[in-house]
Amino acid sequence: MSTILIGGYYGAGNIGDEAILASIVNELRAQRPNNLELSFIVISWDPKKTSKEHDVDSIHWKDMSAIVDASMRADLIIVGGGGIFQDYWGIDPTTYLRKSSRDITAFGSLPILAKLLNTPCMIYSVGVGPFQSELAKYHTRLAFEKCQIATVRDEESLRYLLETGFNLESSNGPQIEILPDPVFTLTTYQRDETQVKEYLQQNKIDLDKPLLGISLRHWDIGVSPEEWLSSIISAVKNFLSMNERAGCILIPFQVLHATPFTNDVTILQKLADGINMPDRLHLIEEQPTPQFAQALIKHCKVILGMRLHSVISAINVSTPVVALSYAPKVKSAMEYVGLEDFCNDTLQPKAAMLTDQIQKAWNYQENISSQMHSKHSKISNKSRKAAQLALNLLKNYKHRPIEFSSEFAIKKIKETILLDSRIEKLRYEKDELQNQIWKLDRQLLVTNQSFRELHSQLNNKEAENFALKSQLDEIQNSRVWKLGQRYYHIRDSTPLRYIYRFLVVTKREGLCTAFHKIFDHLRVKQQTAEEISTKIESQANLVIQSFVSELNKRSLKGVFVLTSAFEFDEFYNQRVINLSKYLASHGWGVIYVAWVWEDEKEAPPKEIKENIFQVPMNFFLNGYSNLKLLVPMRKYFIAEFPHPDFLSVALHLRIHGFAIIYDIIDEWEAFHKVDQAHWYQKNFEESIVLNANYLTAVSKPLIDKFSHLRKDIHLIPNGFDPAFLGDFQLISKEKLNKQNINIGYFGHLTPAWFDWKFIKDVLDQAKTNSINLIVHIIGYGEPDLSKMLGDYKDSLVFHGRVPPSDLYIFAKNWDLAMIPFKSGKLSEAVDPIKIYEYLYFGLPVIVKGIPHLDDLPNVSVVDNVDQFFEVLNNLSMSNKYQSQSIDTFEFTWEKRFSKFLKILEDETWMSL
Hints:
The protein is of the alpha/beta class and 912 residues long.
């Protein structure tokens, strides 16, 4: 029995690649000599599924040890088919024969093993190119040179192969032929057509209704998906309006929830939403088999195809096809059957022209089908030749003994693979031990707390500052101040401001000048959106080029690009701001990408601190490609929130040497459900999780949420900076006076998560129990407090915004602190920075809505008002109560972020 090892993009949920595998295996079985028994081992991303669907043995692409063993058993190694030699997503030559290999290095590992083992190797009807780097060309050439036979699926692929420097005339090189894609041999049987009819009946689609089939995929390389999709929506909508009996069926050729590129349902759903004819459209949401998809295409009258194998399937069953050539391979397939006139070289043809193409194919279906049928037989016969070449190679090649050098190399490769596995296992064990150590440290901190003697009063300056702040609060809460603020708001922030400004200019400069200024203003307003966009793009390129030039001049460890929902303002005291300061102070350059609501003036581009360069988000999205000009160094892109735009940015930056880090800081899906993150799309966040080189999260619940996607998420909670919280010293408080309690909170106050009802219920029960409980609130985003608290608003003191360095002035007068959040997914996963600042101030903390904080010292988690007062009672009865100082270094940003950098260093070392 002869064993054939096959490696391609199999088991990843792509119909085209599954059709390629089925065609290769079927042809090899069909053409083998009678006396030759064949067994197959297929390298797959889903071995169990591959084995079941194709009746083969299968191993996982990440199981390098199994791949080496399978190579040693194989009598022939086949690489392909499919468009596997390209570098859309970059290339890392250090990853050959490693778990981290992908694309060229993954597929190129097989010819290396074949060469070492003296095993014949064939590259089987693959697509080659396009290439974005010379490095990718070089490694593609190396893969081809190690084979005995190589076939490419079209002239375009041969041209790209020759661009690599491959020499067709070399006597030592492989035999090269152009043979059509293996899927040209895929056959549709009666059972497949029966399944299609049953499916249509189950979904109440009239079998006699003529159907337009559509296959699209996400594509944003060099084009805007929104723009090209808009053109196709218009064309299809026009066609359906002109053909009232026609229906439309949307066929996904890949349904893999990894990236937008691998999930056709997403783009097809947008198409359906844009056409908005639900009674005439049907979207298939589950991935069909290759045979089912081809049988369904046979049932259609015309196909509008973007995926290559939707076009090939249409050719196989003689269904007229209008193609959208997002890559040269699509055009090559159309040229095989002489349908160039129905092939669009751009993804964004004029809608009217595309409608005409579809209508022409519709009207002349029989003539076009006849033309396709007459040419298909020749194409499929030529495609079958690849299997003949493979079998001849298997039959004629005589194994030679493995040389000592090759045997030694294989041994070292297996030792390296084993070492990688052990290192990975140790890394997980290390993280688990670290988590246990942290938990023990917290328990130790609680057990061994040392009490400091507190000062009894503030110094004169602190007292004076507090008095002045109290006077300022009194003024700002006065009726006169509020009326004044209302007047200025009406004057400066409503449409009445234009009348006011006109009168002022008229008074100062005359009526004529006032009218001239109005006309000048209107002329500026007429500037087109295109001019503004061009201006922003030009400014963005100049700004980022200047930042890159400045960073290149400096002696830095590397550069981090961080995205933030805030401009760089230390008042916000956010994680990303603290991370930027930490990195800059430890020898790293930082490009801080700030969210802007209207324009870049909200976050002006400049160096805001040494080695920290702020750039507004609109500038960054227009000019990030200039980051490829950074000199070779360690480069990281950190997404602090999963905005859809950041996924494509991250994937493009990875091509230029950036590692992707997703720092999971919030439950964004829950935020979206309460209208706090309108931009959020779940599939984009999951794509970022799957594609990130490194993953960190602030809490265990957030790690658990994505554990079904990744097991290598590191826990890096939030923290605090003692130096940033002012010159604070603890003040002694011997015992909690249960009848007179001051409890405080600082932070955002949105009703989406802040539980105002809980506060009201606490104040209500305090009144019932004759407890003088005063709630102190420092923060922003507050609602109408009178509406929220009603009669209890007098028991709440609202201090407004306070700089972080002044928080201690208020906190020293509190008996305890609180975090009253609503229960639910929005709050249960958060790791609030304020909790660590409360601990630094020595305050006991009562928390509602965040169960995982129960592990922290001095923190009591409650679910309701009764439990809240039970905690108060325990504190008032305890002789041990006093404001407590904890050795809080474990909770500082310094400690947190030093671990973060250590993870990057360790994992960078592991990938070498």
